[in-house]
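Why do we care about 3D structure at all? Because function follows from shape, and shape follows, mostly, from sequence. That is the central idea of this module. The next example makes it concrete: a single protein chain, its amino acid sequence, and then its structure expressed as tokens.
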Amino acid sequence: MLGRGGFWVEVGDQQLHIGTENGVDRLLTKAHLAYEVEDLNAIEAVLRENGIEIFESVPIEGFERFEFRDPFGNRVECIKPLNQVP
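And the structure:
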């Protein structure tokens, strides 16, 4: 990605896209990590037990999800397809 900064990593069917931006306010950007999880409620409970504030996400049809901020201010999403069996 010469000229744009960042790179893509792919292992099997998993992809990770890493990009760079100058002058980004981490509390205002929509850029974020997203983790697909099997038990959204368990993840949320662990985060809350450790004092992490949970934010509701804009609904996406077919998914349950929420967001939180990591200790560096980065936005992180946990998402679960509704048709996935825990």
